[in-house]
Amino acid sequence: VCALSNLVIAIDGPAGAGKTTIARRVATDLGLQFLDTGAMYRCVALLATRRGFTPENAEGAAHLAATAEISFQPGDPQKVILNGEDVTQAIRDPNIGDFASAVSVHSAVRRHLVAQQQRIVQQGGVILEGRDTTTVVAPKAPVKVFLTAGIDVRAARRHRELIGKQIDADLESLKSMIGERDHRDSTRQDSPLRVADDAHVIDSDGMSIEQVVDAVERLAREYEASASVQS
Ligand code: C5P
211, exposed or middle or buried, with CB in 10 Å at 0-12, 13-18, 19+? Predict the structure, then answer.
């Protein structure tokens, strides 16, 4: 229990691989705080669109990233609070996700958000997810997972998720959006999506949510067992 309460698990991977779903479940099971780093980029995107900024406005977005007060309120699902406003729903809009991907290329935006994320990680007892969490935010996390799946599976999951939330969505356009996002996330200069050397790769094609959750929790328990042997 002692090792687990200090445990840091980082989950990385492309859009729609199920990082958020898995991290949320593991957080509940193991009693860890859930740090949704993508939600923070989405918050900056939401503010930028409200100000009428274009995604290219790096300086404007960086200022928003530096001054935005973003916090997470535990619960199921946990709430995202941005400058005192509950934006849990608003940031899930696919257009905000797209805008987030575009503003996340700016190094100054990343620097501000990564600094905030690292302060939370330092407290320990956290599972964080997002593309760069294993490579940049928490490269020393004892448990690192690269969660992936084929593009068809990822698009179908996103589609089901949005329809379930009564958000209109078209499968083909989701697929091309995810493809574009993959490309942008893996080719950007600053912190591109990549598999960390010592990350465990889990390809979730054909796996149920439970099976992926079990696989991550097994890694956590293995680490815990080896850490308690060493101490
Ligand atoms: O994971 P989510 O879809 O909420 O992330 C939205 C966008 O924010 C991603 O497409 C990605 O470009 C960006 N992001 C990032 N680094 C993270 C998390 C998200 O660049 N750690």
Answer: exposed
DSSP-based three-state secondary structure for 60: helix
Name every residue whose Cβ is closer than 8 Å to that of residue 177 and which is 6 or more positions away in sequence.
Answer: 94, 98
- The number of the ligand 1 atom at minimal distance from the alpha carbon of 132 is 21
Give the other-Cβ count within 10 Å of 69's Cβ. Answer: 10
Q: Find all residues with CB under 8 Å of 185, minimum gap 6, and list them.
A: 14, 15, 101, 104, 131, 192, 193
| Atom in ligand 1 nearest the alpha carbon of residue 181 | 10
The alpha carbon of 170 and the centre of ligand 1 are apart by a number of angstroms equal to: 21
CA atoms within 13 A on the CB side of 42: 20
Q: Which residues contact 198 (CB under 8 A, 6 or more apart)?
A: 144
Determine the residue type at 46.
L
Q: What is the pTM of this model?
A: 0.91
- φ, ψ of residue 198 in degrees (nearest 5): -105, 25
CA angle 155, 159, 163 (to 5 degrees): 175
Counting ligand 1 atoms within 8 A of each CB, the residue from 34, 47, 104 with the most, and so the one to mutate, is 104
Q: Is residue 61 in contact with ligand 1, taking CB distance under 6 Å?
A: no
Nearest to 130 by CA among 159, 101, 107, 165: 101
Q: pLDDT digit string (tens) for 169-228?
A: 899 999 999 999 899 888 988 888 999 989 999 999 999 999 999 999 999 999 989 887
Q: What is the dihedral of CA 98, 100, 106, 111, to 10 degrees?
A: -160
d(CA 183, CA 175): 12
